[in-house]
Amino acid sequence: MKYSEKILNTPSSFIRNILKVTDAPDVISFAGGLPNPISFPIEDLQKSIHCAIEENGAKLFQYSTTEGYLPLRQYIADKYKKDYGLNFNPEDILITTGSQQALQLISQVLVNKGEGIVMEEPGYLGAIQAFTLAEPSFYSVQLKEDGLNVEQLENTLKHNQHIKFIYLVPNFHNPTGITYTKDNREAIYEVIKKYDVVLIEDDPYGELRWSGEKIPYIGAGRLENSVLLGSFSKIVTPGMRIGYMATKNKELMNHVNTAKQATDLHTNIFSQMIIHKYLVNNDLRSHIEKIVQLYKTQAETMLNAIAKYFPTYVNYTKPDGGMFIWVTLPEGTSSLDLFYKAMEEKVAFVPGDPFYTNKSNVNTFRLNYTNTSPEIIEEGIKRLGNILYSLSSEKQTV
Amino acid sequence: MKYSEKILNTPSSFIRNILKVTDAPDVISFAGGLPNPISFPIEDLQKSIHCAIEENGAKLFQYSTTEGYLPLRQYIADKYKKDYGLNFNPEDILITTGSQQALQLISQVLVNKGEGIVMEEPGYLGAIQAFTLAEPSFYSVQLKEDGLNVEQLENTLKHNQHIKFIYLVPNFHNPTGITYTKDNREAIYEVIKKYDVVLIEDDPYGELRWSGEKIPYIGAGRLENSVLLGSFSKIVTPGMRIGYMATKNKELMNHVNTAKQATDLHTNIFSQMIIHKYLVNNDLRSHIEKIVQLYKTQAETMLNAIAKYFPTYVNYTKPDGGMFIWVTLPEGTSSLDLFYKAMEEKVAFVPGDPFYTNKSNVNTFRLNYTNTSPEIIEEGIKRLGNILYSLSSEKQTV
C-alpha cells in the first residue's frame, strides 16, 4: 500500500518518541514541555463542572457550533481588549482543539503544495509537523537575541513571491525562550506591511512573564492579515485541548471555519463550557501569578545551576518567562551525541535537530524547567555539566 | 489574498448553514442529525466525573498520549471481541476527536491530489467535506435497497488504478437509513479482496437497532486493509467528541498517529477518562436499549405519518435502526424547491443535494426523527404532506 507524500514527509514528533524513553521514573527529564501539574486548579474546575451542568444541563453534552461557545468567545475578545486594547468581537474568535489545531487549519486553508511558509530558525516543532501536511516550501529566518533577523526576513519576502504566511512565537519562544523586543517587533511590522502575507503570532506562553513589561503584538490591530493564536493549556489545563484563533479578516475566518467543520465538526463543548465557567467564577490573575512565581523559581534554579556546573564556553538564553532555556554548544559539537550520553546518566532534554526544517546534528538543545522540582533541577544540571566537562577533556586529549 | 484550492473546493456544510435558519423555536426541524438530549446519561456522567477525578487527579488535566487513554482503548478492543468476535488489541485502536477527525486523518494519510476515493451515492456529507481537503477524485457507487451496487463497485475498481480507499456506512446509513444485507456485504468483500485498497466501514449508528439481527462487518477481521470507525456520540454524548479508529494494519495506524500528532497532539484526555469511567461503571446495554426504544417509537410515528399524509407516489426507506429516513420524489421534482416552500410552513429537512459529490437539484431529501417528539413529528409530516399534494395539483393544472 502506498501512502501520501505529505505523510511520508511529516516528521513523527521526536519529542513524543523520546518521551517514551525518558518517561522512566528514575530519569530526570528536562525534555517535555509540560505545565507543572500542581498548577492545575482542580478544585475550582470541579466547582465549575458542577456549575456548568447545573446551568446548562444537556447543552454540555449535545453537538454544538463549529465556531465555539459564544460566551467563551466573548470572554476571549474582552480579554484582548483589556490586556492589549485590541478591538475584537466574538465573531473574530474561533475555538480550536488546542492551538495546535489552528496551525493545521490555517496551513490547509492558505497553502497549495510548494507555496511558502516563513518559520523562525529554530522554530516550534509542532508547527513544522502541522505545516508539513500542507506540503509547503519552508523558508527559515534566524532568531537573534532580540528577536527575528529583520534583514533576512525582508530578503526572503522580496525574493519569493509565493509566500503565504509567516509564523512567529514572539513571547518566550519555543524552543529558545527568547522574547522579541519592542524595537524588533516594530521593524518586523514595517517589513511585513509591504507584503500580501498573513502574519501568525502564536502566544501560548505570553501570560507567564516574571520579568519586564508586556509588549504589544507585532501585527494585531494594524495588519489586515493578522492572526493571533492563544490557549488555555498553560494557564488552566492542557488536557481539555481548548485553544483559539483571533483575526479581523472575515474571509480567512470563514475558510478556517469550513476547514474546522470538515476536520472535527466542533471543539468539545463540555470542556468549553467548563473552562468558561472557571474563567468567570475565579480570579484568573491571581491563579496565573502563582504559576509565574513557581516557574520563576524553577527557571532561576536552572540558570544558577547552569552557571555553576556548565563549562563557561556553553551559551544559553535567560528567559523573562515561559518554559524553556536554549543551550548552544561550541560549533561542531553534536547535541544528539550529548543526548545519548546524558541518557546513560539518566538525564533527558531535547536535542535541537527537530526544531530545524533543514539542519541536522546541530549544536543546540532545549531544556524545560517547569515540570521538575528545584532539587531535581540542580541534580540534573550537575550531571549534564559533568558530561560536558568530560566531553571537552576528551576533545583536548584527541 | 489567495486561498488554497482545497479549501475553495470544500463545501461549507449545507446542514450547518440551514440549521441556523431552522433553529427558530417555532420551526419543526427534521433537518439535524442530533441525538435526543433526553438520552444523555447526565447523572451517571456526573458520577463518572467525580470518580475519574478522585482516581486520576492531575492526570485528567495534563497533556497525554496521541494514541489515546489506554484503558479506553482496551475497553473498545474488548467490546469488538465481545460483540463481533474480532481480535483487536489496544494498539489497534486510536482515539480521535470524534470519528469525523478519523475521516480527515485517513484521507490525509492515503490520498495525494487527484487520487481516488469511492463514496456511496448518496453519501455522508461530513465525509465528502473531510475528504475534499485531500483533493481527491471522487467515484460514486449507487446505493440500492439491499446495500451497494456491487457490479458498479467492481467496474469502478477495475478501471481506475489510483483508488486509495472505499468509504461505506453499512449500518443505518446516513443519509438513507439503509442497512447492507449479509449477502450484499459478502459480495462487496469478494470484490474488494482482489484490490489493493483500504476499506473504511464507518459505524456510528450500529448500536441503535430495533429490528433484525446484528450483521458482521464487511472487511474487519479478514481484509488486511480494513478500518473500522466508531463513536460514543450516539450512545453516550456527542459533546465530548470521542470517536475511534480500529485497524490491524500497523503501518497505516502509525501514519495516522503521526497525522493526529500534527493535527491536535491528542484527544481531550479529561473527556476520555470520564467516558471510560462511565462505560465501566454503568450498564451500557440497558442504557442503549432505552435509546433504541425511544428512537423506534419516533421512527414508527414518522413512518405512519408519512403513510397517512404523503401522496402514494412518494417513496421512502424504512430503517431498522439509526436516525434517518430518505425520501424520493418523482423524477424532475426539486427537493430544494420543496425545502423553501416547507420553510414557509415552518418545517425543515435536508434536501438531497449536499449528499452527492456531482449532482444538484435532486429529487431526494433526508428526514431525521430522533430529536422531535411524536406529536411534533405527526404535525410536521402532515404539513409536508399538504405541500406535496399542493405541488402535485399545481403540476396537474400546468
TrEMBL record, chains A, B:
- Provide the Aminotransferase class I/classII large domain boundaries: 55-384
A GO term for molecular function: transaminase activity
Name the domain of life this protein comes from.
Bacteria
Q: Which GO terms describe its biological process?
A: alpha-amino acid metabolic process
Pfam annotation, one family: Aminotran_1_2
Which CDD domains does the entry mention?
Answer: AAT_like
Assembly mode: Homodimer.
- Its family? Belongs to the class-I pyridoxal-phosphate-dependent aminotransferase family.
Listed name of the protein: PLP-dependent aminotransferase family protein
